[in-house]
């Protein structure tokens, strides 16, 4: 990817702490609501799912699509965001 | 195949593992995804299998025909033999197949009477016939005799071929059996156990053996040879089949396998692998040692026969055999039906082609018809309205003609028609100024000129009659026209009354409107027309091109002018700038002097307009130059004063090279900073200026080492202690510097030492902030 969004950079810049799920890149209000409805209210819960899927992009994107009808771009953004975060902090 | 949705977590995991998928924890949230994945994998697997199935059909059909009772097995084979490209519904397909099979069985019946005597023959001499199998098989394998390519070439066609060949080999057999090779003995010895174990009458034992020795051998051997020559291919298929069969674990394979193992000592694979099919064993054995394999194939077949048929079941075994051929035949048949499909699928295109063909045929017929009616001009068959006395339409000169005047009129017609045609031709082809018609007076003159025998009145009467006849006989091709100016279809006279009216005016004429033109004339006319059009079109194009060219050159000229003006403006600005740099206080120049500097004397008149434009442009659009009037050497002149760019001068943008505030909180206790620093080393991104960093935090903490990594675009920082590092972290992390966000993270000490082995381990000396920045 050539450039990342500001949201992505902000998220990756620091430990995620208690950030809500909407702080993740690629997840706006709508997807955030869906995710919260599915029980994924914090970014670290999504991170947990991300890690359970062993950082597998395909599966994670599939899961995103499944749980909140994210499109390819959104799920890819989210995946990249978590992936970069893990590179930085994990 | 498998109900994926209802698998337990563990099963799902094992299944995924089977397909070589990395195993993940199956939890409530991941389950759905994994199930989807597994389905996808299964689908892909099926696709791959179906590709291989075509070639496998032969092998499975072998097994297929053995027993009628193994329904499920059968169904599977049916699926396997189906080519993957046919996408009809399965019910349809099976119906079709069944019907084909019925047909085939009829076909198969035919060789039966033939084979019976042969079977008897082999009954008499069983041992020799068995030997022949071996010899033929050996030929197929080792020497690659003439039979081999034949069989391979005819891979998926007629079983007839196979059978005929099999009879051939049988007839050869006595000759070959005179020299029995070692395989024969081997074979016989391996054969003996089934003889011993099964209790049956000799017929049942011999008949199948003869069949085995003859019919099936070519097909099976050919398949083996192909398998051995493409051993890689075979291994691949073997794997596919293995996986497929291990899932299915058919009941059918079990008994055979165990049976053979109990009988045979040569078989390497004993009963531990009951799920492997006959065929897979055969294949694996073949890869081990090929000659033995042939024995095995032969033997296992016999065993199968014995196993299933029991005593005296000649016909059944035969039927079973024929079933095998049925399969081969069905494949053959299916090819035919494929041909049918091709025709059906291309119905529309064929119809289109047919319609086009018909269309052209029709046009051809019409054309021929048109050509044929040009020969209608003869003496007889004219429509002639004779005058009847007291008849209602007996108005002479108007619509009827006297008996005795008919011949005269017709001769007149024949006389003047060539003349009319000549005139028309001349008018059309060579000289448009010639009148294409003969007026009545012209006709009279013409006739009297050529044969001055009749009176004038007589001839005019004839002409009148002729005109009447012309109306009645349009096929003559002569028209009566107004003899004035150009003759067209429009001024053809329609009735005798009109003729009379026009005659009073004296302009009635005869003309041939559509004379038969000679080829040269047609061609020259066409050529003329074409040239005419070409000239017009070409002229049009030329005109357009010329206009375009003019427009373009005008544009170009304008552009050039503009460029010239701009170049001049640039030079003026340059000159002014240079002048200001040279003389600080006297920063204006007289406009005319500038012109004199730029434009050489010879061009001054020529470039007057350009200069004026440039001056105008500067007055209107150049903010750095002000036009004013100054007294220079006692005379007022218009001058340009260079104002420069006061706004942009000296200072840089305030955004540059400075700390611009904090993006987020990093104080102790904030979630953005760790409670205590793990290492004394930091990696700083978003800034490449070590001085700025030192200026920011060297006052508050002790820094041992600071280095820029230009490749990774980051700065490495090493502090004296972990507390110092924490201070530096808080001071740097989350700050904006020169428009970019600075991020800091901790680096392990050993990593740091790896990267910078020379960095000092302890201080002092510590790095200090540069003096200049401290002041500010």
UniProtKB/TrEMBL annotation, chain A:
One of its GO terms (cellular component) is condensed chromosome. Its main location: nucleus. SUPFAM superfamilies: Barrier-to-autointegration factor, BAF (SSF47798). GO terms for biological process: chromosome organization. Keywords: Nucleus. It holds the Pfam family SAM_BAF. One of its GO terms (molecular function) is DNA binding. It is found in: Nucleus. This is Barrier-to-autointegration factor-like protein. It comes from Agrilus planipennis. The lineage of its organism: Eukaryota, Metazoa, Ecdysozoa, Arthropoda, Hexapoda. The gene is LOC108745128.
Automatic annotation (TrEMBL), chain B:
Residues 123-136, 187-201 have a biased composition (Polar residues). GO terms for cellular component: nuclear inner membrane. Residues 142-156 have a biased composition (Acidic residues). Its main location: nucleus. It is found in: Nucleus inner membrane. Residues 101-121, 157-173 have a biased composition (Basic and acidic residues). One of its GO terms (molecular function) is chromatin DNA binding. Residues 52-229 are annotated as: Disordered. Residues 1-45 form the LEM domain. PROSITE patterns: LEM (PS50954). Residues 208-229 have a biased composition (Low complexity). Keywords: Membrane, Nucleus, Phosphoprotein, Transmembrane, Transmembrane helix. The chain crosses the membrane at residues 347-368, 527-551. It is a multi-pass membrane protein. One of its GO terms (biological process) is negative regulation of BMP signaling pathway. This is LEM protein 2. The gene is LOC108739652.
């Amino acid at each position: 990817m050539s450039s990342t969004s500001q949201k992505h950079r902000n998220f990756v810049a620091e430990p995620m702490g208690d950030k809500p799920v909407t702080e993740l890149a690629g997840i706006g209000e709508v997807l955030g609501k869906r995710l919260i409805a599915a029980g994924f209210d914090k970014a670290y819960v999504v991170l947990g799912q991300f890690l359970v899927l062993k950082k597998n992009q395909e599966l994670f994107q599939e899961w995103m699509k499944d749980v909140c009808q994210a499109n390819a771009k959104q799920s890819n953004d989210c995946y990249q965001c978590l992936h970069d975060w893990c590179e930085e902090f994990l | 195949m498998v109900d994926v949705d209802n698998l337990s977590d563990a099963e799902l995991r094992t299944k995924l593992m089977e397909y070589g998928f990395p195993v993940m924890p199956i939890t409530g949230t991941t389950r759905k995804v994994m199930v989807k994945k597994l389905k996808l994998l299964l689908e892909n697997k099926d696709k791959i299998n179906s590709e291989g199935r075509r070639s496998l059909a032969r092998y499975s059909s072998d097994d297929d025909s053995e027993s009628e009772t193994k329904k499920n097995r059968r169904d599977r084979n049916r699926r396997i033999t189906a080519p993957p490209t046919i996408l009809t519904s399965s019910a349809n397909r099976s119906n079709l197949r069944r019907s084909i099979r019925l047909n085939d069985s009829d076909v198969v019946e035919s060789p039966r009477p033939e084979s019976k005597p042969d079977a008897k023959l082999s009954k008499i001499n069983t041992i020799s016939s068995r030997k022949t199998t071996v010899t033929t098989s050996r030929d197929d394998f080792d020497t690659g005799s003439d039979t081999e390519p034949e069989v391979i070439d005819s891979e998926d066609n007629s079983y007839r071929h196979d059978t005929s060949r099999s009879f051939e080999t049988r007839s050869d057999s006595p000759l070959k059996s005179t020299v029995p090779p070692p395989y024969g003995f081997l074979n016989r010895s391996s054969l003996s156990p089934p003889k011993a174990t099964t209790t049956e009458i000799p017929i049942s034992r011999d008949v199948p053996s003869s069949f085995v020795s003859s019919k099936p051998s070519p097909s099976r051997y050919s398949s083996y040879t192909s398998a051995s020559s493409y051993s890689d291919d075979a291994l691949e298929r073997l794997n596919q089949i293995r996986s497929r069969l291990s899932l299915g674990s058919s009941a059918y394979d079990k008994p055979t396998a165990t049976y053979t193992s109990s009988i045979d000592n040569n078989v390497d694979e004993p009963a531990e692998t009951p799920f492997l099919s006959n065929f897979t064993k055969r294949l694996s054995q073949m890869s081990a040692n090929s000659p033995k394999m042939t024995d095995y194939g032969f033997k296992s077949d016999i065993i199968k026969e014995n196993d299933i048929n029991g005593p005296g079941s000649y016909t059944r075994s035969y039927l079973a055999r024929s079933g095998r051929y049925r399969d081969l035949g069905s494949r053959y048949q299916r090819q035919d039906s494929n041909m049918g499909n091709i025709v059906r699928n291309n119905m529309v295109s064929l119809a289109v082609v047919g319609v086009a063909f018909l269309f052209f045929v029709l046009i051809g017929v019409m054309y021929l018809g048109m050509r044929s009616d040009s020969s209608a001009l003869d003496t007889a068959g004219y429509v002639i309205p004779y005058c009847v006395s007291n008849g209602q339409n007996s108005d002479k000169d108007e619509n009827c003609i006297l008996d005795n005047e008919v011949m005269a009129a017709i001769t007149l017609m024949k006389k003047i028609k060539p003349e009319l045609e000549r005139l028309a031709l001349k008018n059309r082809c060579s000289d448009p100024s010639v009148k294409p018609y003969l007026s009545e007076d012209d006709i009279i003159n013409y006739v009297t000129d050529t044969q001055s025998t009749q009176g004038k009145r007589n001839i005019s009467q004839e002409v009148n009659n002729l005109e009447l006849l012309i109306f009645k006989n349009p096929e003559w091709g002569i028209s009566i026209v107004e003899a004035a100016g150009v003759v067209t279809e429009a001024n053809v006279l329609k009735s005798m009354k009109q003729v009379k009216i026009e005659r009073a005016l004296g302009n009635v004429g005869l003309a041939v409107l559509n004379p038969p033109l000679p080829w040269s004339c047609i061609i020259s006319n066409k050529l003329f027309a074409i040239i005419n059009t070409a000239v017009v079109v070409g002229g049009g194009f030329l005109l357009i091109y010329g206009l375009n060219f003019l427009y373009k050159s005008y544009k170009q000229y304008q552009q050039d002018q503009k460029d010239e003006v701009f170049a001049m403006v640039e030079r003026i600005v340059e000159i002014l700038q240079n002048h200001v740099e040279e003389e600080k206080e006297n920063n204006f120049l007289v406009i005319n002097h500038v012109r004199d500097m730029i434009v050489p004397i010879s061009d001054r008149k020529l470039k007057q307009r350009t200069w004026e434009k440039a001056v105008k442009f500067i007055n209107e659009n150049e903010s750095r130059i002000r036009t004013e009037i100054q007294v220079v050497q006692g005379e007022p002149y218009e001058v340009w004063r260079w104002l420069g760019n006061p706004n942009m001068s000296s200072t840089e943008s305030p955004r540059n090279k400075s700390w611009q505030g904090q993006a987020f909180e990093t104080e102790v206790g904030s979630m953005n900073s760790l409670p205590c620093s793990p290492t004394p080393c930091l990696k700083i991104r978003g800034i490449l200026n070590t001085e700025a960093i030192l200026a920011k935090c060297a006052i508050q903490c002790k820094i041992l080492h600071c280095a820029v990594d230009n490749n990774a675009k980051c700065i490495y920082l090493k502090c004296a202690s972990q507390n110092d590092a924490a201070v530096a972290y808080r001071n740097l992390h989350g700050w904006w510097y020169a428009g970019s966000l600075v991020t800091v993270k901790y680096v392990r000490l050993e990593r740091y030492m790896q990267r910078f082995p020379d960095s000092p381990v302890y201080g002092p000396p510590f790095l200090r902030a540069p003096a200049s920045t401290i002041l500010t």
